[in-house]
Amino acid sequence: MSRARADEEEYWHSSKFRAFTFDDEDDELSQLKESKRAVNSLRDIVDDDDDDLEKVSWSGDPVGSISWSIKETASSSTSSLESRDSSLQKGYSSYSAFPKQASSYSLSSLFKGRNKLPSFQSLSDALSDTGVKNYAPELRRPKAEYKDYSSDWSPKDTVRRMQRGKVCSLERFRSLQDKLVLLDEAVAGHDGNIITAVLIFLKRTLRKEILFQELEVRQVALCHLIHFLKETGEQKLLLDLLRFLDRTEEVALSQYREHLNIQDVEKRREFLKGCIGLPFSAEDTSHVQDHYTLLERQIIIEANDRHLETAGQSEIFRKYPRKASILNMPLVTTLFYSCFYHYTEAELSALQIPDKQYVLTALAARAKLRAWNDVDALFTTKNWLGYTKKKAPIGFHRVVEILQRNNAPVQVLQEYVRLVEDVETQLNLATKYKCHDVVIDTYRDLKDRIQLAAYRCKVERGSAEEEKIDSILNNTQIRWKN
């Protein structure tokens, strides 16, 4: 009795399976051997003659049939996934996650049933099943993937990886020598984005004196940094860099650009006045002086015109109300404004305006007001003998085009079309703008009877132009060329 009790206790306190250790072999052969030992220990309770009997699963399908194989494969994959997840959390051996997979197989058929039922899977096949492997969770990434974030890259490799769009940390480059090698590699790669990225890193990690000194001998990187500072508006650092390089004119221009950020007109005027003394070139100094003078005149004109417009004391402001303030407007806009509202006043006489620019702007302003006498006076000059002559520095063909855009009458257009020197251009303009008298007179002077007769068909029947053409064609004193 005591012996039976001892055997029973030994049975319940013993185990055929070993606990998981890191020294266990995890290969398929060791798992197969362990399973075989478990089957042999149960051989006396299994009847070998069971192989001759038809085995039926819980669903009623014969074991080994196609329907049984499909259901069994699906259930084994699902149970294997759940078993693996739970075993990983508890720390047990992974092969113990497959008891349900082998449970519906005949134990005796695991080793000798394959010949009778070809659709059966061995335990080794089940362990190597691809479906189970696909569902297994990924425990860690390959080491090759973590290499992207390592700090073992050389400056050359780092630049190459940046060119391929990889994320690279530049913080590992701590010494000045490494940073300069990295910058040289970026410049050698001819990629402006990478050069700028490295310069931002150097700007953040180096003292500006050291950075300026090193960039002085690296002109490509220096140009990139100057452009970057201009684009980002880092004015203080840009001025420090230009002063270090002894580029006095660029320093002056950078300071001059600051007026764009000043909204108050009086403060802007005072700022421009202070810029006149900066070390500009002679030409730039003249431009800055003109800018200051222009703004000063704009302030005076704006104050007076606002008062006149509000009081309603000027007819031109009542007939043509102002659409915007003149303050901070460009020179050409201010010139047009002055020629439109203050043509007889010398508002902008102190400014250096080219003759062509003045004529174009004044012509457009006076033609818009249909002040044809002012237009005529604009092109009338006198010589030292007192004779008058019309002269246009922009060419009379352009004068005709501007007048036509402002709906000048035909009489005015014809006067200026006649002043076009080139005969072919004159004929084209006269035909285009229907200056019939000019066309008729030109063909008469050219003694071209055929062209004159052809043009007779283009004028209105019974008009004065048709009668004029008939009179010329019937003139027997004219010796026609054709």
Describe this structure in words.
The protein is mostly helical and 482 residues long. Strands 1-2 form a two-stranded antiparallel sheet. It is 60% helix and 1% strand. The protein is built from 27 helices and 2 strands. Helix 20 (355-368) packs antiparallel against helix 21 (372-379), helix 22 (396-405) packs antiparallel against helix 23 (410-417) and helix 24 (423-432) runs antiparallel to helix 25. The chain is elongated. The protein has helices spanning 2-13, 28-41, 66-90, 99-103, 109-112, 123-127, 130-135, 143-146, 155-163, 176-188, 192-205, 208-215, 219-232, 235-244, 248-256, 265-275, 282-311, 315-319, 331-341, 355-368, 372-379, 396-405, 410-417, 423-432, 436-446, 449-456, 464-473, and strands spanning 380-382, 388-390. Strand 1 (380-382) and strand 2 form a beta hairpin. The termini are far apart. This is Spermatogenesis-defective protein 39 homolog. Residues 177-438 form the Vps16 C-terminal domain. It is found in: Cytoplasmic vesicle; Early endosome; Late endosome.
Describe the SSE topology.
Layout: H1 2-13, H2 28-41, H3 66-90, H4 99-103, H5 109-112, H6 123-127, H7 130-135, H8 143-146, H9 155-163, H10 176-188, H11 192-205, H12 208-215, H13 219-232, H14 235-244, H15 248-256, H16 265-275, H17 282-311, H18 315-319, H19 331-341, H20 355-368, H21 372-379, E1 380-382, E2 388-390, H22 396-405, H23 410-417, H24 423-432, H25 436-446, H26 449-456, H27 464-473
Antiparallel strand pairs: 1-2
Helix pairs in contact: 9-10, 10-11, 11-13, 14-15, 16-17, 19-20, 20-21, 22-23, 24-25, 25-26, 25-27, 26-27
